[in-house]
Amino acid sequence: MMKFKRTGSPLIWLTTIALLLLVLNSSAQPRKQNLNIVFIGNSITYGSRLNDPAADAPPVVACNYLRQQSNIGTVAFSNQGHSGFTTVDFLPVTGTAFKGVEAAAHAFTDKQALLIFSIKLGTNDSAIQGPNGSPVKPEAYKQNLKTIADSLLKEFPGCIIIFQHPIWYSPNTYNGARYLEEGLLRLQSYIPQIDSLVAGYSASYPKQVFIGDKKAFNYFKKHYLTDLDPEQGHQGIFYLHPNKKGAGALGGFWGEAINNVVK
Questions:
Q1: CB neighbours of residue 92 within 10 Å
Q2: N or C: which end of the chain has fewer CB within 10 A?
Q3: For the residues 50-57, what does the mean pLDDT come to?
Q4: 125 part of a folded domain
Q5: pLDDT per position as a tens digit, 90-145
Q6: Domain count within the chain
Q7: SS (H, E, C) 6-28
Q8: What is the largest CA-CA distance in the chain?
Q9: What CATH number did the domain enclosing 132 receive?
Q10: Rounded mean pLDDT of 42-69?
């Protein structure tokens, strides 16, 4: 225990004690982490079929959740969700999607904040026909994700990458693209590929690549009537995109997963 010799006037002594208590109290408070987050994804990430994606899309909800956490400071984000996009569309050599991700990451004003890439891709990859590159085989899906992640880790040293598991869609899903039960089975085969990919980074990039949400797939499988938007397709009413309630649930899952990594 430290001992202090009392010298000077009572006012000086009281001021010294007050300053000491202030320093001790501030040092005991955990430092809040500021975040810059780029959300990479498809129409589900973008918030397709929502009346106001700018207010209700899953990335917006996720960031609002994070701002309410005691360990989080400021949160800036960019929604890089594009309808119909696959992992092929986000490959660095493919087109403009990856350039958009790069530009978004460079545009954040707080350069000291922790940079996070939240990636949720796979729905369009799993389609039988329609989206670019579909159907993407599980091994190719994993390699595409690795190519994207490797490029981000090289360009943005110290960044964090979080792979969110894809979410369920109904086995009769068939709009402009054809998914159906074959697509749903393929989508589920992507999940162990994500987990294996993340495990492989544990040695090369320790504490930089993580699995995020694992809950949403089963949540939407159970709650599709209340949380997914009914859409008319070639094989009847199908369920693919979250409605406002579902976007809120998905954003909550993502926000919780991101905060668990930050902690």
A1: 17
A2: N
A3: 98
A4: yes
A5: 999 987 999 999 999 999 999 999 999 999 999 999 999 999 999 999 999 999 99
A6: 1
A7: CCCCHHHHHHHHHHHHHHHHHHH
A8: 87
A9: 3.40.50.1110
A10: 98
